[in-house]
Design goal:
Blueprint: H1 4-7, E1 8-11, H2 15-24, E2 26-31, H3 37-48, E3 52-60, E4 64-67, E5 70-73, E6 77-84
Antiparallel strand pairs: 1-2, 2-6, 3-6, 4-5
Length: 96
């Protein structure tokens, strides 16, 4: 992967990810399914100018959905839990 924006797709902002951020300085991202841990680490460090301590990845299976009589399946995706080094922070929303 060459482009940093192909590796990191979007931050995952949920109650659980917010609790992880407050408790252990862990940020969750949706990443490309082919991205490796070293690529994710390099992309986060370059995009947000922070020091990454650890990267954990999870392959999340897509859910089965029903809409009327039609059945389908959402796409599988990959989640990365990035632990930041002491003193590093990423703010997605401005505190007001």
């Amino acid at each position: 992967m060459q482009n940093l924006y192909e590796v990191i797709r979007r931050p995952v902002v949920t109650e659980k990810s917010t609790d992880l951020k407050e408790a252990g300085n862990v940020i969750a991202f949706e990443v490309n399914r082919r991205a490796t841990k070293p690529e994710i680490k390099a992309a986060v460090e370059k995009l947000f100018k922070v020091k990454v301590k650890r990267v954990r990845t999870i392959n999340v299976p897509g859910k089965h959905v029903t809409l009327g009589r039609n059945r389908g399946k959402r796409s599988n995706w990959k989640k990365a839990l990035v632990t930041l080094a002491q003193g590093s922070t990423i703010e997605f929303f401005e505190n007001r």
